[in-house]
Design brief:
- The complex is a heterodimer of chains A (281) and B (400).
- Chain A is of the alpha/beta class and 281 residues long.
- Chain A is 28% helix and 18% strand.
- Chain A contains seven helices and twelve strands.
- In chain A, helix 3 links the parallel strand 2 and strand 3.
- In chain A, helix 1 crosses helix 2.
- The longest helix of chain B is centred in the last third of the chain and has 28 residues.
- Chain B has 400 residues and is α+β, with helices and mostly antiparallel strands.
- Classes of the chains: A alpha/beta (281), B alpha+beta (400).
- At the A-B interface, helix 3 and strand 11 of A face helix 7 of B.
Chain lengths: 281, 400
């Protein structure tokens, strides 16, 4: 039996060029969803196939890769994707945010501010911010073309009318460069302000839905809101049980079945760095 | 030839002989045993048991062999046997909380009492063809017991430590000084119960024990169907159909904001109340997979916002099936929860009427049967209508 051979970073070079063209177009039109010929990948759809294709297309032998899921490097899916690139591209991997040149993420933006030498690659399940208001792609593309975002504002208004505040806590819609309304992927809205004027290039890959979009460095990203109901990033009002941080996004860990809870930083690298600094100080 | 369907007794016999020959394949290749199917195509057996609604691995393996690997055909064979079996009664309700766990994960919490037990899973494998499997190999030496319980407070679970190849992740450093007094009697509490203690999720009230559980194999399904019949229908329903419907809810057609609160797989004891002896007699244990989806609910005029539930349960290791089932179960509760019903997955009559693959395959494939009497009458009609139009056109041309 002939053993199949795989290219550097799994994808063939033609596919990588096709994806890079989509990425360049996405950078040229910030927040616009560029359709691309997404490939079948050796992990299931919905598990990061879009992010993996973007990473595979921009990855070079000298890159240092960090992969996080829920903010943490040791989450099962992050481990799996990191191992995938370590195996197929033999690149150096790291858990340290500052050391990485490419960071692939699911559901979080690192707490440590990113630099212009870094690229943040988001895994995106549903790229269309209007999808849950209008399930048909033919309609939503027309709405974007006409910048017809009234429906989104009505939805946010209805939330306020019914609940007293906007009841969207993650995948909170943003407007990019004053033009396209964009889904930031299911990051908690706590992370939305980090996207604004970010020094790093932010790339978004949705494999199953076959879309790539981007936020170029130092682009204006505004979370949708109203003058009398301004956007508020939210976090659990606790401090981290490990490093004591009171300004990070926290995970709630169930410690027993009698109501016991422990709150810890979701960004495990940030938390670890803080504890390391404490010890050496 | 198709014409042979009419009076084609010999043709049918020949076709079935040919089928038997094709089923066997090249006689130079050794024949499959039921043990091989049951051991090495275990998930196929699980699906046939689940959708065939009959917990018998050996019969499932036989059906798969007889059906040449066509699982819907195998399910059909099992169903056609099951229907002939006498019914003694219903078992006592099973307790999945007391499950002997082989796999248990929650996507809603990073860590929880009992830990995340991955068990045997395709998750996080890279789908790269493994050419070493192309050759048969001598049986590998059994793995040493690789129970890694990284947190002393969690090591008190006998179910887990009995298991080889099980790794319990606790997800955060062992230095976290948290409460270690985990009750050994409640080593694997259900995630939904943990949320339930805080009143954050709707309660799941037990049914009235005096009301018999419905059975759609013994009484025709009527609408609206109760929860018992809905879940029975979905548990027997086609995995592919439920998967597509569940997927559609994730893409905006009846969205329910789901989180996989918990998926657990393992062995559960089945008991039967024997009237003669006056107590419940254990019948044995069966493998089950259970999924509890946690879904959003915005609240109503009378109720505060809280999470709602979608439930999936199936025989065997049937994870895709129970997850899809839980999504569809929750979508079908739209009416009950006061949500607008507009997507296919929310339409009870549509979903429950079309979920059964034995019914579906029968009716779709019946189109292969001769229909020439009906077709002849259609032919006559279409010819007559065309002739009428032609006559009318001629008459109009003549008039012009």
């Amino acid at each position: 039996m002939n053993a199949p051979a795989y290219n550097f970073a799994y994808l063939d070079e033609q596919t990588k060029r096709m994806i890079r063209r989509a990425i360049l177009k996405a950078i040229a039109i910030p927040g616009y969803q560029v359709p691309f010929a997404s490939r079948e990948m050796p992990m299931p759809y919905g598990w990061g196939t879009g992010g993996v294709q973007v990473t595979a297309s921009i990855l070079g032998p000298d890159d240092v890769l960090k992969v996080i899921d829920q903010g943490s490097d040791d989450t099962t899916n992050a481990v799996s994707i990191r191992k995938f690139f370590a195996k197929t591209a033999a690149v150096r991997t790291t858990t340290r945010t500052a050391e990485a040149t490419i960071i692939q993420t699911r559901h979080r933006i690192p707490e440590t501010p990113l630099s212009e030498d870094q690229v943040l690659v988001f895994q995106v399940p549903i790229p269309e911010p209007l999808r849950f208001l209008e399930p048909r792609e033919t309609e939503t593309r027309r709405m974007h073309a006409l910048a017809d975002y009234g429906l989104m504002h009505v939805k946010l208004y209805e939330d306020i009318a019914r609940h007293g505040h906007i009841a969207t806590t993650y995948a909170y819609p943003v407007k990019v460069d004053g033009r396209y309304v964009m889904d930031p992927s299911p990051t908690p809205k706590f992370d939305n302000p980090k996207m604004d004027d970010c020094a790093a290039l932010q790339l978004f890959g949705a494999g199953r839905e076959k879309r790539i979009y981007a936020i170029p460095p130092h682009t204006k990203v505004v979370s949708l809101d109203f003058e009398d109901h301004p956007f508020e990033p939210s976090r659990t009002p606790k401090t981290c049980g490990l490093c004591g941080a009171d300004d990070t996004y926290l995970d709630e860990v169930v410690t027993d079945d009698k109501g016991g809870r422990l709150f810890v930083c979701s960004d495990s690298d940030y938390c670890g760095e803080r504890r390391g600094a404490e010890k050496t100080a | 030839m198709y014409v042979a369907v009419k009076g084609g007794e010999r043709a049918i016999d020949n076709a079935h002989r040919l089928l038997a020959e094709k089923r066997r394949g090249d006689p130079a290749v050794p024949e499959l045993t039921l043990e091989q199917i049951s051991e090495q195509l275990a998930l196929a057996c699980d699906r046939v048991m689940a959708e065939g609604s009959l917990y018998d691995r050996e019969l499932a393996a036989l059906a798969i062999k007889q059906a040449r690997g066509d699982l819907v055909e195998a399910i059909f064979l099992v169903r056609a046997y099951r229907t002939t079996l006498p019914r003694f009664g219903a078992s006592e309700p099973i307790d999945t909380g007391a499950m002997e766990i082989r796999r248990r994960i929650s996507a809603a919490f990073k860590d929880l009492p009992g830990g995340q037990v991955l068990g045997p899973t395709f998750d996080y494998t890279h789908r790269l063809l493994d050419t070493t499997l192309a050759e048969t190999s001598p049986s590998p030496s059994p793995h040493p017991s690789t129970v890694i319980v990284r947190e002393s407070g969690r090591s008190n679970n006998n179910d887990v430590s009995n298991e080889t190849d099980t790794e319990v992740f606790t997800g955060y450093p062992a230095s976290a000084g948290h409460d270690e007094s985990v009750s050994s009697t409640a080593a694997m509490p259900r995630v939904t119960d943990i949320l339930g203690d805080d009143g954050l999720i709707e309660p799941c009230l037990p049914g009235d024990p005096d009301v018999p559980v419905g059975d759609l194999t013994r009484a025709p399904l009527t609408f609206p169907a109760g929860r018992d019949l809905r879940l029975q229908n979905l548990a027997r329903g086609d995995e592919g159909f439920l998967l597509a419907l569940g997927y559609s809810t994730q893409r905006g057609y009846g969205r329910t904001h789901p989180f996989a609160g918990e998926i657990r797989m393992g062995e559960v004891e089945v008991e039967f109340m024997a009237e003669e002896v006056g107590f419940a007699v254990p019948l044995g244990s069966i493998t089950l997979t259970e999924c509890q989806m946690i879904n959003q609910f915005r609240g109503s005029a009378t109720e505060p916002p809280q999470f709602t539930r979608g439930y999936g349960l199936a025989f065997g290791h049937s994870e895709r099936k129970v997850m899809a089932m839980a999504l569809v179960d929750r979508a079908l509760r739209a009416g009950e929860l006061g949500e607008e019903r507009k997507a296919p997955a929310q339409d009870e009559e549509f979903v429950l009427s079309h979920s059964d693959n034995v019914q579906a395959t029968g009716f779709v494939e019946h189109l292969k049967l001769p229909h020439y009497v009906d077709f002849q009458s259609e032919l006559m009609l279409i010819r007559r209508m065309r002739a009428e139009i032609a006559t009318r056109d001629e008459a109009r041309e003549a008039a012009e």
